[in-house]
Backbone:
């Protein structure tokens, strides 16, 4: 990669950081004014989270806006600087794959916005039903998978580095739909401690930036760096004690972004490793629910493996501060992400 390429990426991340950070100066007071506060149910988290009741939500708009603006600006600077052969069809397909990620993530952000707005309107934590969310997610996911196929990614093989599957045909897309639903909602579950989801996603986007440069998906780096900068700017308002929450508006956008980038890069082992923190968060919930139901059926009372799930609440109940949880989970994200990069280089 040329020096100018990385300079443009640096400009992209800084632009996104500034836009997200500065936008909070206007957005947070506005959310306070219109009383868009987060309803808190202590059954979904430790009792001391009740003091966070009313903290402005939908702060995800900070990094949504900054990501869209900075990613497109970074691409056009790169193009005008001669980094793209305008006669090359693949270069334009690469741009449209990046654009597909932006539109797809925004569509999930819209689902999250509807969910947040419903909760606030009802003044409780009951937004869209699980099935309503899943149906909307499936509809937008079909559109996304169709888009990236149209723009060059026609492979239906699963790439695990050390092993590549035969072409799976239509079954590949069915399987990827399941991956999308799981991962998107896993990212949503990670948003339960101040600064956690934004920090873990910041790490994931840096990992994806390196991976995209390795597989020559240059245009995608402008999206990943823009989102990394947006998350960093948002953290100015979201680290403990949070002045604003991202809401489902933000977490759904982040979830779609993580899955979209992973699928466009078409390196499935990398996606699993880069998203391992989210995967374990959701897995802890599944394990807890299954074990509770099993023990209730067998012993007449439900038993728990973790003190509370998702697992970040288990650590919180065990005495970890929110800062310590954020640092620990982010370090885990770095370790798994670096392993993912190594698999790209080795295989």
Residues:
């Amino acid at each position: 990669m040329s020096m100018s390429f990385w300079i443009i990426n640096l400009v992209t991340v800084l632009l996104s950081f500034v836009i997200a950070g500065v936008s909070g100066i206007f957005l947070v007071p506005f959310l306070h004014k219109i009383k868009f506060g987060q309803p808190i149910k202590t059954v979904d988290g430790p009792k001391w989270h009740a003091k966070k009741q009313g903290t402005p939500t939908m702060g995800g708009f900070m990094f949504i806006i900054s990501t869209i603006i900075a990613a497109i600006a970074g691409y056009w600077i790169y193009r005008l600087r001669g980094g793209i052969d305008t006669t090359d069809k693949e270069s334009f397909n690469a741009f449209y794959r990046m654009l597909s990620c932006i539109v797809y993530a925004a569509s999930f952000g819209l689902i999250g916005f509807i969910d947040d707005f419903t909760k606030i309107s009802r003044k409780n934590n009951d937004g869209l039903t699980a099935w309503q969310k899943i149906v909307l997610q499936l509809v937008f996911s079909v559109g996304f998978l169709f888009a990236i196929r149209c723009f060059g990614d026609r492979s239906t093989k699963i790439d695990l580095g050390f092993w590549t599957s035969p072409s799976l045909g239509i079954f590949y897309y069915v399987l990827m739909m399941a991956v999308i639903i799981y991962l998107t909602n896993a990212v949503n579950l990670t948003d339960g401690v101040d600064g956690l989801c934004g920090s873990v996603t910041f790490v994931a986007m840096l990992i994806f930036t390196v991976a995209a440069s390795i597989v020559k998906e240059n245009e995608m780096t402008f999206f990943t760096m823009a989102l990394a900068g947006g998350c960093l700017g948002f953290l100015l308002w979201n680290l403990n004690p949070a002045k604003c929450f991202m809401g489902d508006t933000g977490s759904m956008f982040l979830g779609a972004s993580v899955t979209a980038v992973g699928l466009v890069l078409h390196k499935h082992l990398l996606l699993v490793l880069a998203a391992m923190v989210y995967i374990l968060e959701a897995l802890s919930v599944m394990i807890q629910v299954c074990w509770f139901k099993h023990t209730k059926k067998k012993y007449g009372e439900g038993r728990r493996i973790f003190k509370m799930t998702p697992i970040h609440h288990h650590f919180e109940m065990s005495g970890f501060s929110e800062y310590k949880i954020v640092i620990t989970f982010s370090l885990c994200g770095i370790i798994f992400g670096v392993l993912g990069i190594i698999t790209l280089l080795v295989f």
